[in-house]
């Protein structure tokens, strides 16, 4: 009797919440995911451009350092510039990691939602049990 009662409660919950609420939530999450993917693509293209520029600057600084064997005589602004470039690269890595974490969270939320076939799969036996 207890199982039948639980099935009845589950059936009421499915009817109450309905597949529509799950579908609406799924659509909302998919829209958010698409927006985040667009932002990620924009960020990655921007990041790649900046990364290339920073790598060029680093290469230029390294070339200057190797040409001037006496590093003690290098101007302070070269060291300052080099440290700024490294900070920018690290900041971009952190921003990318944050965006990727957001995408992973959204994908997990989408995976947690039952699809329509799963809802139908569980609804049919419940309806059959309720009719008995």
Which short descriptors sum up this protein?
mainly alpha; 132 residues; 3 helices; CCDC93_CC; CCDC93 coiled-coil domain-containing protein; 90% helix; CCDC93
What does this structure look like?
The chain has 132 residues and is an all-alpha fold. The chain has one domain (2-131). It contains three helices and no strands. It has helices spanning 2-67, 76-112, 116-131. Helix 1 (2-67) runs antiparallel to helix 2 and helix 1 runs antiparallel to helix 3 (116-131). The longest helix has 66 residues, at 2-67. The two termini are 13 Å apart. The mean pLDDT is 79.
Layout of helices and strands:
Elements: H1 2-67, H2 76-112, H3 116-131
Helix pairs in contact: 1-2, 1-3
Largest sheet composition: none
Structural class estimated from helices and strands: mainly alpha
Q: List the uncertain runs.
A: none
Q: Globular, elongated, flat, extended or rod-shaped: what is the shape?
A: rod-shaped
Count of the domains: 1
Order of helices and strands: HHH
Total E-strand runs? 0
Give the mean pLDDT: 79
User: How much strand?
Assistant: under 5%
Classify the oligomer: single chain
Q: Using only CA atoms, what is the Rg?
A: 28 Å
Considering DSSP H and I runs of 4 or more, what fraction of the residues is helical? Answer: over 70%
Alpha plus pi helix count: 3
Intertermini distance: 13 Å
